Amino acid sequence: MLFVCVANLNRGAYSGRNLRNKQKAKETSRFLFKKFRRRSCLGCSFRTIMQKDPDLVVANTAKALPKDYFKDQVGWNNWDTEGSITRRKTRPVWVGDVCIGGGSPVVVQSMINEDTLQIDRCVTAIRNLHEAGCEVVRLTVPSLSHAHAVGFIKQKLKETYQDVPLVADVHHNGLKIALEVAKHVEKVRINPGLYVFEKKDPNRTQYTRSEFDSMKEKLKDTLRPLILTLRDQGKAMRIGVNHGSLSERMLFTFGDTPQGMVESALECIRVCEELDFHNLVVSMKASKVPVMLAAYRLLAKRMDEEGLDYPFHLGVTEAGDGEYGRIKSTLGIGTLLAEGIGDTIRVSLTEDPVKEISVCYGILQGLGLRRTMVEYVACPSCGRTLFHIEDVLHKVREATKHMPGLSIAVMGCIVNGPGEMADADYGYVGKTRGYISLYRGKEEIRVVKEEDGVKELINLLKQDGVWKDPPHETNGVSDQHAYLSSRENGRP
Fold this sequence. Notes:
With 492 residues, the chain is of the alpha/beta class.
């Protein structure tokens, strides 16, 4: 018999499923309380219990809660008992000196919005993105003249700044453009729906099998020269499928669906496989989050079935701007990352591209996939709060935000503060009116006046040898790239 109890010990309430009787539920609650000292609702998740002790014996019976009890829950298969994400295994794909997939940290990308013919402006935009923490930068290449301009951009970057991995975005009938720009960039992105452009026939009512196969052969013939060029130069390709630009034959055959997106990607992947080219990254972007999620999940399933292990580039295209654009991107990208899917990400905002970078790193930090900033733990405040926590959190953040990898908790009172901040490196907790306690881990180090709190926190960091002076800023943008370069778990 498996006992699963949802209990609130503070109120003495209980409910049960698969319980022999109510007394068993109470016994289970008491047992769990003694084992974990949890004073809040234990049933808010047994995942916490699973993480602490997967072999837990419930209610003093000889029956153990099986390790795989929660494995049928959505997304749980991708989390180990320590709460870490188990990522889908993919092959490493090198884009310059940046590795995508193969267990490397999830790579952050973006795209400049300058006209590629404006060489100086492009160089400045690429540099700004790179200094903000963008590891791979994409630029549009709509014509041969733009392809030639990329060569000058690359050269000027090396002369005035440093080499930055570049991706060329090639679309309509792009073979000649792609072959030229491949000389100057580390990766070429093609859109299967536009690379061999088919002008839509408004009078068409169906695609015959022979017509479908004919266009498939045309795609193979057009892809082959680019694939061979990239293979011989040791460069990479992204097969970037967009929901809004599926080819006409895919729309007629599979509809405007995630399946159509998947078939479009697999068709190109198989051409690359035939030519022994494996330096591939795949993306399945859509402006609707449910469509994007379905497409990536289906492609991952199909690729796993066929033994294909290419890394995924994640993104919600045309997400918009402001708060909603960030929420939309986080829902799409974060959901897949939590399921173990995704090796590189781009948040697409209708704003200055530099603003995309902090959102990317926020998603990765929130999921525990990368630590590139300070992790702040702070309570929402309530009537027990002994100081204006919003102001204090802002002051603490401004004083310490340049030390990525550190975890600092700011808690309003001692009721929940010490327990909720137990995983933080340092804590700032309201003690009594006008005084705060400073913690190192779970240990209270000193009690100081509230007005001296931030200064004394810095002194504690200096005393422990973890304090670093703030880095310089460039054009008002913190040198996030310097942080990444010095991080232990940065890019390989």
